[in-house]
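Escalation from tier 1.

The customer reports that the assembly of two entities below gives different structure tokens on two consecutive runs. Tier 1 could not reproduce it. I'm attaching the input and our single run for tier 2 to review.
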Amino acid sequence: MMWEPRIVAFFCKWCAGSAADLAGVSRMQYPANIIPVIVPCTGRISPRAIIEAFLNGADGVLIGGCHTPNDCHYMAGNFKAFKRVYLLKKMLKQFGIEPERLRIEWISATESQKLVRVTKEFVSQIRELGPLMGGSDGEA
Amino acid sequence: MEQPRIGVFICHCGKNIAGIVDVKKVAQEVAKLPGVVYVEDYVYMCSDPGQQKIIEAIKKENLNAVVVAACTPSLHYETFAKAVEAGGLSRYKYEMACIREHSSWVHFDKKKATEKAIRIVAAAVAKVSKNKVYKPITGKVVRKALIIGGGIAGMTAALDLANAGIPVILVEKSPTIGGKMAMLSETFPTLDCAQCILTPKMAEVARHPNIKIYTLSEVIDVEGCIGNYRVKILKHPRKVDPDLCRLCSFCERVCPVKVPNEFDRGLSMRKAIYIPFPQAVPSAYVVDSEHCTKCGLCLKVCPVNAINLDEKEEIIEEEVGAIIVATGYDLYPGEKLKEYGYGVYEDVIDSLQFERLLSASGPTKGKILRPSDGKPVKRIVFIQCAGSRDENHLPYCSKICCMYTAKHALMFKEQVPDGEATIFYIDIRAAGKGYEEFVKRVQEEFQVNYIRGRISKVYRDINGDLVAIGVDTLSGQRITVRADLIVLALGIVPKLNPDLASKLKVPIDQYGFAQEVHPKLRPVEVATGGVFICGAVQGPKDISETVTQASATAAKALELLGKEYIVREPLIAEVDRDLCNGCRICLTVCPYGAIEMVESKAKVNELLCEGCGACNASCPVGAIQLRNYTDEQLHLVVKAVLRGVT
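Tier 1 run:
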């Protein structure tokens, strides 16, 4: 069976999460490899949760939050997420995981098109990188 | 902990979900999940019979948690929460799994969409299995409002609230309330005299039994949260007792110190003991502590012994339920526009100075005279967008300049019918009721010369004439205009001390204006509950818009202060005191200052916490957890969406 990348997408409920809702309402299509996990704020995403995703078989982790500097519903959760992702990418490299497998994007509630573009891009990028842990069968 | 007995209810949404997602397959797979004891699918779960299925199943199957797999929670969270509650279960023991917007509507591939839907439902099941029941948080509301800024915005909000029976504290930095509007001559487009419409309002504020005015005062500290703020107000000494002062002006006459009068924007002089303008509120003299030499002459002549030069500043503490920020604006510093010669040539003035020249109570008693030599003005040039819509200065439009410049030109022509008025503009922005008609009138009836273009340089030639050089961008011609007086329509900048903004947790945008929650739907609220913004501190706006917005803040404050208690969502952060090692990292990441140290351990203020979870993600020992989205739950969710992947 062909390998299919498995991607966990942490979306904040205010911006990227709403963009995902809007993408649905607008019947846009994006790869089903993206499984959304809605969190209150990207500032809630602990590095541990991202590591857990990789440990449990994710080939990539996407984080979608509100635009910097002012869009964050909780003032600066997006900056906190950005800093954590920046540091974590450096650590991932030391673990032997390509830092490109972790991506953070600012997607406002109206930017469903950006969401579609980013998810498509990210899936094809991860497809090129190949499976993280020897590959999965892609079955539920 | 009791064993989870989870019921999963899968909605077909007609064909919206079931047309792509194999609902039966989802039900089959979900039934295998740990804790799931009941699964049902139905064509329209949100319909009455659908909701009834949930209510009945909770009772019959003795469910202690519910997952509804349907559309986005923003659509039907509340619908199903009510059904769950009707079944006798807490709403906090229920989660929605969005399999429509996040799966069936975005994928054509039925197999993939079904698989994804199963993962989404599994995540919700994993989360709900660890959900706990919480009681809503309640806090008492202090029935009192603080208004910062005593201009037309603050005064309007104060009167609206006070008339509704709410006690109001009005804090104003300068010696009198009235704000910038008190400096104006007439107001566009009706040409009402500003003083005539403002001063009665000032008097009304002054004598209102529900309004307490603190002039010469600043808010220096804010603590607490929505419904219950504790504020510290620093009151600078007036050094004249307003209750005793009878405005006899003896003190002013003997005072030997002369300084430029800020109310006339430096076009006249005042003494070190002075009254800003005759109708000032409070109606009393004030000592300018910065310039007073304490010579004591005023003390000798005051017939009522109202003066005390040794009065000290004091700090007043107040408790309020709501705070309205109405600190207004300042003009962009004209000195920064070097090409216009502001501050170099006395006859290049700003628009507020021109208002003072026009005002009957101004330095020239309303006559338009040149500041340099006091001669009448025959040729006048107005430069619009002075600082505004300029990448090097203010990129935004200051909104009111087009209208007040038209008004200035009209009033000049009324006073000097044979005079020559020229306005340089980029675009005329006259959106507003009666505004376009006003500008047309100025152009046609009053023969004011509108030239589209910018002035590149202003200088004084050997004859002493001011010369403005620019380009008429419509004809492409270079233009040179001689003038007796040049008026700059300086841009508007917000007047909000960043320190105060951070204490009030009012977010500010890149230009320093206070940032509303939503420009259309929540225009006067900020992210912090119980704090409202109105007037030019939110963005450039004219008097009518300011008054509208001020009344809006009063209505919003009233909505809050009308309640005895406020009820808040309990899904906030919580500290396990046994785990907390007192490292204080959470204190530094919390955007709301909701965490304090109690006996060296972190404690969450339930009324301040908004539940963003930033502290949760940063705690090195996992001691602080977001209720119903703990680390354990987040990790279970991650595992659930990746189930079967190795």
